[in-house]
Amino acid sequence: MSSVPVTPPASDALAVRLAGVHKSFPVKGGSSTVALEDIGLDIGTGEFVSLIGPSGCGKSTLLRIVGDLIEPTAGTVEVNGKPAHQARIDRDYGMVFQAPVLFDWRTVEANVRLPLELMTGAAGADRDRRVREMLDLVGLADFTRHHPHQLSGGMQQRVAIARALVFEPALLLMDEPFGALDEMTRERLNGEVLKVWARTGTTVIFVTHSIPEAVFLSTRVVVMSPRPGRISEIIDIDLPQPRTEETRESERYFELVTQVREALRAQHGGGASAARARAEGGIG
Amino acid sequence: MTDGRSAARGVLRTVLLLGVFLLVVGVLWEAFKWLFGDPWRLDDILGTGLSYYHQPPFDLLQASDLQLPHLWSIVGALMEPVQRNQEQTLLGYLVSAAAYTWAEALIGFAIGTLIGVTLAAIFVHSLFAERAFMPYVIASQAIPIVALAPIIVVGFGRGLTSVVIIATYLTFFPVTISQMRGLRSPDPRALELMRSYAASRWQVFWKVRMPASLPYLFTALKVAAAAAIVGAIIGEGPGGVKDGLGRAIVNFNQQYITGPEKLWATILVASITGILFYVCVRIAEAITLRRRGSTSA
After folding, report:
1. Rounded to two decimals, what is the model's pTM?
2. A261, A263, B144, B290 — which has fewest CB within 10 A?
């Protein structure tokens, strides 16, 4: 299969440009498995792009390649017109993982302040103001002095989001951030992420298993297929902004959810595998 | 704060457990003597004119008063003068000897901790250093300290220095091993997160590895506290230090046949010293880690 046509980004300025990205991992015995094959994708500044696909399609790997946490075997990765490595050195990335990865010896406030402590330039008073603003934004202003173990899972993940955004990174990378949370908490946090996105104008790449989540949040949904991981379809999500609870009940929303589900199903062809795709899609 | 209170409760629990332990040892001790020891009698109990005679059902040499004196004889010996015609009680003498030994142990403990933490930091950051020097660190602990102590004394002269070196020697090893585990304990994603911030090794060390290692460090320090006291006592013999528990043990060992109470009293004071040192480390641990989610025993 040749490379998939790329939908032009919403804005002229490119936040991320991926071209011909391959990734293979060595396996015992000298051979290697191909995790990603021929990935090409342009993401415009301010976009919210979700990567969705079944387990093993390489979506987390792709996210880590964009974030320069692992290197591609071949291909180029540019972020804000720079190589990914340079972007990381310039602190262009905010990262949120599936687990909050907070430090239990730090208060909520101190956890959010951590990235600022690593970066020279932010003065003390300015630092504290930014930390307070971010905690306000994620609704944790009353918990600044708490320690992570005193918070619920959803609150911990909100601290992680505040920490990822406190230094105003150009690009927010989220790897199934709400995968471990219950449905109610997940929907509420989806709303909060959109609020934060609207306020900060950060470009977001969001890895998820959940079709409704991807459709609700994104400006574009990138559907990936496994073995080897590649982009099988890119779907524009033309739901109006800002998105609210009504969005979840609109007819267009359901159409798009169906479209994404069918795209996931199509990659398997017909028969039994299609049934499996339906089952997997149904998780969302 | 609730955290402070639960930390205090943790320390209290430790102290209580140690107290219960001492009590159980005491009860077992006297029970052993009740069954196997020498006969004894109490005359005129509390001025009532009544008397009591106890004849143990069995007879065992190891339980005789010359091997295992009664606890009340040991406590009684503590209140008597160290030697005839001397003002100082055995207790006063042993407490000052214990304080001296503790001071030696503390210096060795501090230096050993510093060496252990430094070695661990180097080994964790350099596979080459770990491969090259770790075998020596392990081999060093295979040498019996009683064999090494005289060599150290010959090298560094009699006196405090040699004793401190021996205490250091016994301290640094558990600290090195435990601290290496501690420095390697952070969640790989935490390191990934720091990488995404383009944090330097130095920053990763101070902001993540070091704080994450503290529970491991304290575990090692609790072991090292007791080891440092033992090291100091052992070192005092060949080191020729007169003021510590080591000399007291050597002296009272020679008097054992005629007065075993004194040696047992010294052993009691030495172990209480070790326990007190342990409790001090435990309190420091509770204060340092009081805000963390996980509680350690």
Report:
1. 0.80
2. B144
Q: Please check whether residue A21 is in contact with residue A75, taking contact to mean a CB–CB distance below 8 angstroms.
A: yes
Is CATH 3.40.50.300 the right assignment for the domain spanning B76-288?
A: no
- CA distances B297 to A221, B8, B215, Å, are 50, 12, 10
Q: Do B199 and A118 touch (CB under 8 A)?
A: yes
Range of the domain at A161: 48-71+81-281
Query: What tokens does A1 get?
Result: 């299969």
Cα B113 from Cα B191, distance rounded (Å): 26
8 Å CB contact between B132 and B150: no
3-class DSSP string for chain B: CHHHHHHHHHHHHHHHHHHHHHHHHHHHHHHHHHHHCCCEEECCHHHCCCCEEECCCCCCHHHCCCCCCCHHHHHHHHHCECCCCCCCEHHHHHHHHHHHHHHHHHHHHHHHHHHHHHHHHHHHHCHHHHHHHHHHHHHHCCCCHHHHHHHHHHHHCCCHHHHHHHHHHHHHHHHHHHHHHHHCCCCHHHHHHHHHCCCCHHHHHHHHHHHHHHHHHHHHHHHHHHHHHHHHHHHHHHHCCCCCHHHHHHHHHHCCCCCHHHHHHHHHHHHHHHHHHHHHHHHHHHHHCCCCCCCCC
Instruction: Return the SS3 of A243.
Output: coil
Is residue A9 a part of any domain in this protein?
no
**Residue A14 falls within a domain, yes or no?**
no
Q: Residue A243 is part of a domain; what is its CATH number?
A: 3.40.50.300
A101 CA to chain B: closest CA distance, Å? 6
Contact A101 B208 (CB under 8 A): no
If contacts are CB pairs under 8 Å, which of residues 118-157 in chain B contact chain A? Answer: none
On whether residue A184 sits in a domain, the answer given is yes
Q: Give the count of alpha carbons within 13 A of B54, CB side only.
A: 15
Pairwise CA distance, residues B185 & A258, whole Å: 44
CA–CA dist A144, A128 (Å, integer): 11
C-alpha B198, offset from chain centre: 43
Q: Is A87 inside a domain boundary?
A: yes
Domain boundaries, chain B: 13-68, 76-288
* Residue B210 CB neighbour total at 10 angstroms: 18
**Number of domains, chain A:** 1
What ipTM goes with this model?
Answer: 0.80
Burial of residue A6, with CB atoms counted within 10 A of its CB: 0-12 exposed, 13-18 middle, 19 or more buried = middle
CA atoms within 13 A on the CB side of B94: 29
Per-residue pLDDT of chain A (284 residues; tens, 9 = 90+): 444 444 444 445 788 888 888 888 888 877 888 888 888 888 888 899 999 988 878 888 889 998 898 888 888 888 888 888 888 888 888 889 888 899 999 999 999 999 988 887 666 778 888 899 889 888 888 998 999 988 988 889 889 988 988 888 888 999 988 888 888 888 888 888 888 888 888 899 999 988 988 998 999 999 998 878 888 888 888 888 888 888 888 888 888 888 888 888 887 654 444 444 445 544 43
A147–B293: do the CB atoms touch at under 8 Å?
Answer: yes
Residue B202 touches chain A, beta carbons under 8 Å: no
Q: List Cβ neighbours of A30 (8 Å cut-off, separation of 6 or more).
A: none
